[in-house]
Amino acid sequence: MPVVTVGGARIPYRLEGSGPVLVLVHGSGRGSVTWESALGHFTGRHTVVLPDLSGSEAAEDDGGEVTVELLATQLAAVLADLGRGPVDVLGYSLGAPVVALLAAHHPELVRRLITLSGWCGPEDPYIRNGITVWRSLAGNPTAFSRYAMLAAFNRSYLNTLDREAVEELATGMPPSADLLRQLDAVLKVDIRAALPRIQAATLVIGCALDALIPVEHSRELAAGIPDSRYAELECGHVARLERPAELAKLVGEFLG
After folding, report:
1. How far, in whole angstroms, is CA 170 from its chain's centroid?
2. What are the residue boundaries of the structural domains of the chain, listed by start?
3. Which of 103, 146, 166, 168 has its CA 20 to 30 A from that of 238?
4. Region 3-121+190-255: CATH code
5. CB neighbour list of residue 256: distance below 8 Å, 6 or more residues apart
6. How far is the C-alpha of 56 from the C-alpha of 52, rounded, in Å?
7. How many Cβ atoms are within 10 Å of 178's Cβ, its own excluded?
């Protein structure tokens, strides 16, 4: 597995599939493995690049502060190491402001840009309080993980699952020092000044039933990026599980 060193951090990335390059950037959580269930929807047409940025399980760093600026710098190093010219990039959740910042600062690296369940500023008290409450549950791993499930998935989707599958989701995101660093980064995101500098063709995807990052934030993100397109999925925050085929269709149509 290739690894790049950025500011003392070791950032691994892996490649799956074949075809034009599509980089899938993870949000808060374990890292690139969170894309695993949806990979088959993309690897038939793309060489999918899966980086593990700081805060993910596979990255190695000094345990210091995580910011979107730091993650965008790490992602730029991965793309430079890849050496495949400007590529298509999709960032999910915390990965959305990361890829937007990358496109603003490194237009030579990004051909087309896609954000999913993203946001651009720190001023929404709903997000700030939701993340703060979630973070405050770190001393109770069961409550922390169950809160994560309720924030991430919409009620209708959970009601389609059997009890065993729900319990698996309810225990799937225990607190860790790295995850808490990522949540701290969420609270500090402010990329609004960078949005007008984005030159890449952009698709912003919002999730209409998102209880973690309300869909209005994706609409705000689209409004701030020149000539961007906007699309919406009828799902909660985790579109890759709730609507993987529809997500892949939107991405495929945009990338052509």
Report:
1. 20
2. 3-121+190-255
3. 103
4. 3.40.50.1820
5. none
6. 6
7. 20
Label residue 133 exposed, middle or buried (CB < 10 Å: 0-12, 13-18, 19+).
exposed
DSSP states along 55-66 = TSSS-B--S---
Taking every pair of C-alpha atoms in the chain, what is the biggest distance, in angstroms? 48
Two structure tokens written together for 136? 């405050």
Strand partners, 43: none
How many helices, marked H, and strands, marked E, lie in the chain? 10, 8
What's the token pair of residue 175?
A: 């607190």
Q: Give Cα separations from 204 to 2, 100, 188, 219, 229 (angstroms).
A: 29, 10, 21, 8, 6
Judged on CB neighbours under 10 Å (0-12, 13-18, 19+), 62 is exposed
pLDDT in tens, the chain (256 residues): 899 999 999 999 999 999 999 999 999 999 999 999 999 999 999 999 999 999 999 999 999 999 999 999 999 999 999 999 899 999 999 999 999 999 999 999 999 999 999 999 999 999 999 999 999 999 999 999 999 999 999 999 999 999 999 999 999 999 999 999 999 999 999 999 999 999 999 999 999 999 999 999 999 999 999 999 999 999 999 999 999 999 999 999 999 8
3-state secondary structure of 244: helix
- Three-state DSSP class for 223? helix
Q: Tokens 């690897």 map to which residue?
A: 43
